[in-house]
Known about the structure:
Helix content is 23%, strand content 28%. The protein is α+β, with helices and mostly antiparallel strands and 502 residues long. Helix 2 (43-56) crosses helix 3 and helix 6 packs parallel to helix 7 (235-245).
Amino acid sequence: MRGIIAAAGYVPYHRLDRAEIAAFFRADRGGGTRAVAAHDEDTTTLAVAAASAALASTAVRADAVWFATSTPAYLDKTNATAIHAALGLDTEVDALDFGGAIRSGLGALRAAFEGTGTTLVIGADVRDGRPGGTDEAQAGDGAAAVLVGDAASPTSSRAPSGGPLLAEYLGGAVRTVEVTERWRLPGGHSQSWEERFGESVYPPLIAETWVDALAAAGGVKTSAVDRLIVTGLNRRAVTSSVARLGVASDRVADDLAATVGNTATAHPALLLTAALEQAEPDQLIAVVGLADGVDVMVMCTTGAVTEWLPDPAATVAGQISAGGPVSYSRFLAWRKLMAVEPPNRPPPARLSAPAAYRRAGWKYGFVGSRDRSSQMVHLPPARVAEQGGAVDDMEPAPMAATAGTVITFTIDRLSWSADPPVIFAVVDFDGGGRVPVELTDIDPDEVHTGMRVEPTFRRLATADQVHNYFWKARPLPMEPAPPTAPSPIGLDLTDTNQDPTP
Length: 502
């Protein structure tokens, strides 16, 4: 039996009100908001956020990482390897990109369902369009990760290679057509033909694909489908297809258009994750994607879906409700769609590739070291213990999933930043470890000592077309700080915020 072991979505904190776009251009761009990736986020960092949340909910490890995006941070270079490093996966775990096309997200998920092994499928996109256009307003940024594998064998004594399935994959079907309905040249904006063209292409295909998918799923009837997810960038085609399928309107999933926007490559998995977070056992979920053809997948939830119950704040709905506003002018500046005066400071230099390679555990995985004798955590990792002076008597101390408390901070208006000012804070991590780190997803007047934060993988800067990734900290939902304990805390004021590698 094969299906979904874990899933998680990531919706960036910032929300752009479409009314701001409408007011600027004096044109109707619809209501609601769209999710906006911050200036220090790209599809790689969005993918790390979603994947980290998915893996945190299960003990099952991935045999492979498949990353799908239409807006990769790099061409030529594999983007999934940075995700692999940030997740702290073993070198034996394969990492591949499924890139370029919107369909690659759903295609990678279908290939994982029909394949073998345990595969972490991640979709992420940062979408925009020409200022004032429909694509700009209706698009959204986000990511989702789905861990696909087999149900655990009750007789296996090995480390878990399978686990309780949240949903069993029953079957699916596909139709592929060559149609220039939507396209984008490298470096350009997405373009599309008049929507009525796509509306004429997709509905006939979806009817026959739907019949074949239900048959492949064991002869499921349309009336038995409890949740229908239909997604695609052609809104007219999506609406027409939903009507043709004959599923009751109250069983059609919210497409998140009014709150998040369409996250393109990530959207099928994001909507599927949202559906699983609200599902009950033995519900049939059908996912339909319209992009260069039609993909249909049918799955049935299990009893494990009620035991899964993620933290309400971490669900897709919880993240949507926790978002904060961003102005249209700031959005344009972040996307480099509007040239603004740069900081009057020297820009950051390109990072050293050899140094980054040598310090990959710290730079990408946020792994410090813990002295075995004193249990003192050293951030960054050290060879010599601060207490006792023992040499090379350390064990790894992964910190990426550890929350902390701000003990002091400063608002820096002099350092270079793509979005000044820079907020630096000294953070004490739960269980030991202290490090100065940049804060993100928060306004300067909201920062205070004692606030709770968590690490988040971000892009510090880009110089000479090389991205410099490291970890920042973002606010946690309101929660009490842990009681103060006499745990050893190491302090190293090395400036990790410009380039954590020498």
